[in-house]
Amino acid sequence: MSFPEPISPRSPRFLVGVVILLVLALVPQISDAIGESYYVTIVTRILIFGLAASSLNLILGYGGLVSFGHALYLGIGAYAVGLLSFYGVSNGWIHLAATVGLCAIVSLLTGLVCMRTSGMGFIMITLAFAQMFFFLGVSLKQYGGDDGLKISSRSNFEPLFSIEGNTGLYYFSLILTLGVLYLTWRFVNARFGRVLRGSKSNIQRLKVLGFPILRFQVLTYVISGCVCGVAGLLLGNFTKFASPAYMYWTVSGDLIVMVILGGIATVMGPLVGAAVYVVLETILSSYTQHWMVILGPMILVIALTATRGVWGLFPRGEAPNWEKRTP
Amino acid sequence: MGIAFRLLGFVAAAALAVCAQAQQPIKIGMMVSLSSSLGALGQDQRDAFMLLVERNGGRLGGLPVQILIEDDQLKPEVATQIVDKLIDKERVSIITGITGSNIMMAIHKKVVDKEVFIIGSNAGPSPIVGPQCSPYYFHTATENGQRAEAVGQYAADKGFKRVYAMAPNFQAGTDTVAGFKRYYKQPLLEEVYTPLNQLDFQAEIAQLAAAKPDAVYVFYPGSFGVQFVRQWRQSGLSGKIPLLSTSTVDGINLPALQDTAVGVGDGSFWGPELDNPANKRFVEEFEKKYNRIPSQYAAAAYDAAQLLDSAIAKVKGNVSDKKALMAALKAADFRSIRGAFKFNNNNFGIQDFYLLEVAKDTRGRFTLKTGPKIMPSMMDAYHSQCPMK
Amino acid sequence: MGPACSDGNVRGQFAPLSFHSFMTWNLLVIQALNGLQYGVLLFLLAAGLTLVLGVMNFVNLTHGALYMVGAYLAATALTHSNSFLLAAVAAVFGTLVIGVVMEWAALRNFYRRGHLDQVLATFGLILFFNEAVRMIWGPAPVYMRTPEWLSGTVNLFGFDYPSYRFLVIGVGLGTAVGMYLLIHHTRIGMLIRAGATNAQMVSILGVNIRMLNTLLFGLGAAMAGLSGLMAAPLFAVQPGMGDNVLIAVIVVIVIGGIGSVRGAFYGALLVGVVDTVGRVYLPLLLRQVAERTIADAAGPALASMLIYVFMAIVLAVRPQGLFSARR
């Protein structure tokens, strides 16, 4: 059992984490210095999927429930932007509110149904809901169907800031992702989070103790869905395009792989997992068209050896004395 | 004397600089879907394009080119990333390929807004054919529904009265059947759109048999086509009711179908047995190099390469002169393997459409034999919506 | 007997005659038979996975990939030898060997690791197999012949029914009977049943659980290969063909109940009939109640969602599946 304890400032994990954050903050400047703004694009994509994977981590890593349908919320976020733009509404705050609102409703309704099952049943029913929305998206011909829906301009957050340019979108994604990571860290250490983690390790005991577990799980699922929806909003802005393909079950699978690859039930894990996955894909595909034949076994090997994910390879180090908890 | 030397030196340096510039290979990006359900189409596009480039020793228009081949996996966010890489990092002035319509819709505006040329050789979704046409976009295949329009015309010419149409329930499916109806003009006996995840058409074939049509039209690309035609053959209807199609029995599927597809009709702008010297050469070289009969997707990509070959030669390699390149491309001054070809106002082709039929060729392989010309010099249905002249 | 009257109907508007012309009884019977036939095919695909998932509690996502490999081996063997029997041997033994090697080399380390790691590992293997197959055979579909003595049709209720389907039904039912005999009338079957209810107890009682696991996994792989062989003349043999089948199969297993072969059988038949009959009649029914263009758009969309909705209902009412082996 790994409870994220307060971090020791001298542990490798802390140091690497700080370095990562510094690099992320400076990506546009570094990219300009090299003269290739393309790197901003790649890291934006990493951030977006890192955000989606972090949202999945809440329910999968900490809650122990394997959702195979999280790509659904990516789609809802992208289509919220797409449909509102289609009808002429480009205000970013409205886009954000609509995304969170829609995701909250959908995740609440589907969550209530899904929570009746567990294990394999939960996996399949979450997948089923995602597939249903995928087919729905494909059949909505007036919004492009599977050809997708173009978004003419990005969400408008002016006069506060603009995300129309790549750098603007990058920093917006960065701030949102870091914000979510921070909130995740606070969340899992708070009472709510600890009940949730407890339900993953021994749900019977918690029920006996009188906790309304269902409420905790559904609420976590809703929060997770809303955050993933925000990632979807960013994805729609990134590509200026909404497509049912964002909701396909293989995308949900990719998200799960990113979470596990990075390290479940850790705060930075999903972001690291997303980065590893995207970087590996980009590098390998530039060498050979058949890069998946290498990536597949790599994932298998990582699953075999790094049982706590890539982020888990960095040791946490000792906590300072005055904050030591009993195991 | 000193001045003369300096002048000579200056001229020599300038000449050297120009030469060095000319020796820089022209970078062309090719983005196709290789690892996805459309992988076989992307592979044909790539192989056919590279056939011409490699025959010319890595040159187009007499000048060295560097083709950067990228795989978009049919995912819009990957395509966005690739396009940024090609334009911002590699600084290409031309992108070609684009297998999937959704990818085209995702990147079209982004690329043409940056004044980079796109030579599309497969996906032709109607918005970019009509209202969103761009002078930077040229297309060597057809608008998505155009082949179906040709088959619809054929069905009308043959006097079929009870046509039963089937297609998968996605955008291309509905667009295609709409195209068929546009030229067939009579009401269809029935239109069935099958779910995307469906493998087994037995039930639909039973419905079809019950309705007793006098012809069937289907659009079932890729694996759908293999499934449908096989099951159609096994159902025993294949001799009794004529089966017309588009993109269902093409060079990709025929090796998997072989004799089960005999007699099925197909409508397209090109067939491997079209009788002109350029096509004979193309098919012979393609078969020799890749050991398979080229498909219409390969044909369009080969013509894209030929188009670029002629245009780059016309501007003498100066692809940064966009106006000149645009004019050179528009001229379409090359021997297309499909016969007559020129660009319409929207930079889509004016070309002939043929009815093709699956049969054995002289070497005992199954291929598409050229049938009657259905529509000479056909224009797509959306060109009038394009504001360009 | 054919349709009552369908000349002179003007399409493009309300056409009640078309519905009644399709509602003849023998057509309905034929469609129900088609549904049963499809169900038997699904059972063939599902049987191997339900054993592995149910007894070993192992989420084997590679089942679809093994099905694909079986189909490819069969197609290649048939093209080179012209003998359907040889193709059958190649498919079944080939996948048996590959399955056993996979299990022995990598997957057996994952039995204790929990569903998430199993999902990750088998997901990596799917990527590997899809790309490996693409590298060896190319991305285009591959030729698979129907055996000559089965290429004809049989006249049933006035419709011509493909003979090959009868072989599929035969093999499917034979497999069902064979598995029933294996599980209920042999010693190994007793161990399998015991393992499905309480795996730990079985190993404590001195059974070589490792051998049993390898045997079971190999059996599951061989069945996947057999189903690939049978499906190859019907469906396209190309990379990624296992992915869609995998989803349908897991839906069947979840509906029928994990670990129960009886559940897989009845679940498969149910799914087959619901899917087939629903797919064909839903658009027609919709035309009765809604305008033509809406019905034509909604019909196929709803039809694709049908099995998922069905699964959601079953899970809502009976979360462990209809015939579950577990309490």
List the helices and strands and how they pair.
The complex is a heterotrimer of chains A (327), B (389) and C (327).
Chain A: H1 12-34, H2 38-62, H3 71-86, H4 92-114, H5 120-139, E1 149-150, H6 166-189, H7 191-201, H8 203-208, H9 213-239, E2 241-242, H10 249-262, H11 269-287, H12 292-305
Chain B: H1 2-23, E1 26-32, H2 39-55, E2 59-60, E3 63-71, H3 76-89, E4 94-97, H4 101-113, E5 117-120, H5 126-129, E6 137-139, H6 146-158, E7 163-168, H7 171-184, E8 190-194, H8 202-211, E9 215-219, H9 222-234, E10 243-246, H10 254-257, E11 265-268, H11 277-290, H12 296-314, H13 322-331, E12 341-343, E13 349-360, E14 366-378
Parallel strand pairs in B: 1-3, 1-4, 4-5, 5-6, 7-8, 7-9, 9-10, 10-11
Antiparallel strand pairs in B: 2-3, 11-13, 12-13, 13-14
Helix pairs in contact in B: 2-12, 3-4, 6-7, 12-13
Chain C: H1 16-22, H2 25-55, H3 63-81, H4 84-105, H5 115-137, E1 153-156, E2 159-162, H6 163-185, H7 187-197, H8 199-204, H9 209-231, H10 241-256, H11 261-289, H12 292-317
Antiparallel strand pairs in C: 1-2
Helix pairs in contact in C: 2-6, 2-9, 2-10, 2-11, 3-4, 3-5, 3-9, 3-10, 4-9, 6-7, 10-11, 10-12, 11-12
